[in-house]
Amino acid sequence: MATLIKIISDGSSVEYDKGAFDDWCVYLTRKNEPRFAPKDILYFIELDKLGNKYGHKRIYNDFLKIYEDTNSIINNEILNKITEIAKAYDADRFNIDT
């Protein structure tokens, strides 16, 4: 059974559920689209695009702000922190928030 992690203000949702080969798979559901499990390469491509636009150092430093406080427990403070960081990225805020 899927566990909801977060609902993004654009209507997208992030959840985890059993995956094809392990018990921890993150799924993204964009508004009016089917749920899918983004592969790591999609995250890295998006991070590279954002780095080219905003500066790789900025993206990396914001990533560290989240990573340093993250563990295996879903924490609403961290989820809110991600949303707050994402707001600074204007049109890309929803991609950062997911």
Report on the structure:
This protein has one domain (3-97). It is 45% helix and 15% strand. It is built from four helices and three strands. The protein has a three-stranded antiparallel β-sheet, with no helix packed on it. α1 packs across α2 (56-67). The longest helix has 15 residues, at 40-54. The model has no long low-confidence stretch (mean pLDDT 92).
Secondary-structure map with pairings?
Elements lengths: L2 E5 L5 E5 L7 E5 L10 H15 L1 H12 L8 H12 L5 H5 L1
Antiparallel strand pairs: 1-2, 2-3
Helix pairs in contact: 1-2
State the total count of DSSP E strands.
3
Number of domains: 1
- Mind summarizing the main beta sheet? 3 strands, antiparallel
Rg (C-alpha, Å)? 14 Å
Distance between the termini: 21 Å
Key phrases:
globular; 3-stranded antiparallel beta sheet; alpha+beta; 4 helices; 98 residues
